[in-house]
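Changelog-adjacent note: as of this version, every example in the card shows the full chain rather than a window. The one below runs 465 residues end to end.
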Amino acid sequence: MQNPLIPPESPQQRLAQALYTQARDLPLICPHGHVNPRMLADPDYDWGTPVDLLIIPDHYIFRMLYSQGIPLEDLGIPRKDGGPVATDHRAIWQTVCDHWALFRATPTDLWLRAELRDVFGITQRLNGDNAQVIYDALEDKLAQPEFRPRRLFERFNIEVLATTDAATDTLEQHRTIRESGWGGRVIPTFRPDAVVNLDTEGWRDAIDQLSAASHIDVTDYRSYLQALEQRRAFFQQMGATATDHAALSPCTERLSETQAQTIFGRALNGSANLEDARRFTGHMLIEMARMSSEDGLVMQLHAGSYRNHNPLIFERFGRDMGADIPLAAEFTRNLKPLLDVFGAHPNLTLVLFNLDETTYSRELAPLAGHYPALRLGPPWWFFDSVNGMTRFLDAVVETAGIYNTAGFNDDTRAYPSIPARHDVWRRVCADWLAGLVVRGIVDEEDAHAMIVDLAYGLAKATYKL
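Full-length structure tokens:
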């Protein structure tokens, strides 16, 4: 039987299978993702229905259906205004299965088939004819104790899982996990976008929340920095090893304290403009690098996404509803102000993620292949796919090597898909490495060492786990 993602029988296939076998059962390092810690804080957490688990949280699924004219309301996606949406989850599941052919040749189909097979033991083909049979099987599984989130965490062989948490979060769910006596390692990640990006909706309210959470009255730029530093220290005490930052572009700019205070003051008064927001975010990326060089938290930068591109979806359903679109990006000039100061700092690790593939070999690999502080994150979002991973490896490794990359992370809210996503990465890396051996670029001994690092070691080392 042919192995998924590995070519038919050949010298490359035989070696790829051996490499994959070596990596297949390594523990999962999950240093960046969006799993809700609440599900792991409650040992008896109830998933709800199969739709609650597999459809409503997964923008990969509902964005494709929306692209074919199916309203998000028909898929049970909650509206911001509390307006009516479909509540019959069997009917929603039927709609999804009736249209599952839309996902042919996509990673979503690959992931969900693997979830059904490997997590739930369901091997039937997903389609409209057997939709209700599969729904019944899933419903039965979800009622069993061994399918609770903590039990799956252990079954998935997750060594550590990092969530993504607002800078103002109390981290009570993380505290509950830590004090429960359960052995799973779940850690927070400091995400300050809501209080850094001045053009974020609700920014002023978020500043009030920052004051309350830090117990520092944020009235000016200096108190703002003090509050952020206090929150970072708290996150670190709760186990965090990293921060995460989203920006429209990787533009960085060093402002004087007076300039930063002036822009911050305008923002507090509600009079900041888009240019203020752009400059302030660029300045704060440098400040966050400075803070990371002091406290050692790994800094992640996700750039190149035009967030909430569809105003209708944003106004009706809010953020992160599948309407984020890649943008062209430029790193060499934009990141230089930050790198001029911290590019060689021994206590900074800056992991770069980007949605513009044209930058891989032109800018990102040369930058990471030179600056000690830089690491390249894995292919992200739209490129978390078989072809996307292969293109990434082909584009960056010749210049940066694998040891200036950060391994893999699953970056998902879809909890049951975590092992499937790691498995795809491990299979693709095994096949890619076997191709290098066949062509005489590396030998088998090197390939066996590299597959372990790509699957496990690089992420563990990069994120200090």
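Structural remarks: The two ends are 37 Å apart (CA to CA).
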